[in-house]
Design a protein that fits this description.
Length: about 425
């Protein structure tokens, strides 16, 4: 059996649930030393190191002059994609743009009668680096990554958006990626991948600029590199394998549930697909559908491995129990395939994204609905949020005192400063008050 269903009240069910609650895994550090060496090489040798690694792993004949995608390559890309792609791209951009515009924060000031002014100044970072994986050597271009990372940065007002992506063996970048980038205003694109691309963005090279924020998915080398440069630059998050939890009742169609589990499982052998159902017969129906649909997938072996090793089907007594379990697990993608999903929204506390109803597969959120698909995994939805415009913003406090306001607050400020043993702090008030 592909997955063995378990009831939550059984010892097997409790063990399974505990495993889901404890699923957080630190980034795979098996490549830590290798990544550290790569980052140091890029820091020391800059373009020379980036080019050497690009030649070794991606494009053997790449030259220094080809590291940046040229204007000619950008222009040519439009001749290599079809009108249907351009139409879909335009529609996806409009949806994602429209959603993320609502996220923009405003600066604000608060005035007091004594002349004190305090507030918050919201400003974008100066520069952001967008990492876009190669996608099987460019044969499966991850256009959605360009949009989901680049559009919020643009809305935030980031002046310089830099994209890096590994070239194919021929030294070229997928025209679909190049067109997608240009359609959202990104024309500064470099042919670099893996940890050396992250290093180039973090430290800067003669060709690739240093940035303030690095976002985008990648393999374990990319993830480890982002972890190592975090603090020097802001990163979006350290993400684990993709995951979905489907809460389903008797109204759910087994074929749809199975299809959505497979959509998650085909990502990665470590992907996590969970079904929590109040309707015991659905478990066997879904298993039958998984057996039927699996052989139809191009990525059958990946999906099969994920389901066999990490797939979960839990049977619970009530919808309340299912929702409380979903909150405890704090999943990346939560699907509510139940009769009245909106009634449960007030009870959802922890989820990266919530998909409501039988006609809302997680794939809609990945590509087209509008909300960002860069989401917290491994239970971090308890405290973390999706990538958004705020990822590219920073806030500065604004404080202005009048003479009268400082006189009124001065004794209180000095009292607290002296209590903490910071006499110079108190002195900076006293000298202004003539004390």
């Amino acid at each position: 059996m592909l997955i063995t269903p378990v009831s939550i009240g059984s010892p097997e069910g409790e063990k399974t649930l505990q495993g889901l609650l404890d699923r957080f895994q630190p980034a795979d550090n098996s490549c830590r030393d290798a990544v550290s060496e790569i980052l140091q090489a890029v820091r020391d040798k800059k373009d020379e190191a980036v080019l050497a690694l690009c030649r070794k792993y991606d494009a053997p004949n790449l030259t220094a002059g080809q590291l940046q995608v040229s204007a000619a390559e950008l222009q040519e890309a439009y001749t290599l994609v079809d009108e249907e792609f351009l139409d879909t791209l335009a529609r996806a951009i409009e949806r994602i743009q429209s959603f993320h515009e609502r996220e923009m924060e405003d600066s604000w000031l608060q005035t007091r009668e004594d002349g004190t002014i305090v507030g918050r100044l919201v400003r974008p970072v100066d520069s952001a680096g967008l990492y876009v994986p190669g996608g099987k050597g460019g044969s499966t271009p991850l256009v959605s990554s360009v949009l989901m990372n680049g559009i919020p940065a643009g809305i935030a007002g980031v002046n310089q958006r830099v994209m890096v992506t590994p070239p194919g063996a021929d030294g070229r970048v997928s025209p679909h990626l190049l067109v997608a980038a240009q359609e959202i205003g990104i024309t500064e694109i470099y042919k670099a991948g893996s940890a050396w691309a992250i290093g180039a963005l973090a430290f800067g090279t003669e060709t690739i600029p240093k940035v303030d924020v690095i976002v985008g998915p990648g393999n374990q080398y990319v993830t480890e590199a982002k972890s190592q440069v975090s603090g020097m630059v802001r990163i979006d998050m350290i993400a684990g394998p993709s995951e979905v939890l489907i809460v389903a009742d008797a109204t759910a169609a087994a074929a749809s549930v199975a299809a959505d589990m497979l959509a998650q499982a085909e990502h990665d052998p470590l992907a996590l697909a969970i079904l929590v159902t109040t309707h015991a017969p659905l478990a066997d129906q879904v298993l039958a559908e998984l057996d039927r649909q699996l052989p139809l997938l191009a990525r059958e072996e990946i999906a099969r491995t994920a389901l066999q090793n990490r797939g979960v089907i839990l049977i619970v007594e009530s919808l309340d129990e299912a929702i409380e379990m979903a909150n405890a697990i704090a999943i990346e993608h939560l699907e509510l395939m139940i009769a009245d999903p909106w009634a449960q929204v007030p009870h959802i506390r922890h989820a990266g994204a919530i998909f409501l109803g039988h006609n809302t597969p997680e794939a809609a959120g990945d590509y087209f609905a509008g909300p960002n698909h860069v989401l917290p995994t491994m239970g971090t939805a308890r405290f973390a949020s999706a990538l958004g415009v705020e990822t590219f913003l920073k806030k500065s406090s604004v404080i202005s005192y009048s003479a009268g306001a400082l006189a009124a607050d001065g004794e209180h400020i000095m009292r607290l400063a002296r209590l903490e043993g910071l006499g110079a702090h108190a002195g900076s008030i006293a000298v202004r008050l003539g004390k």
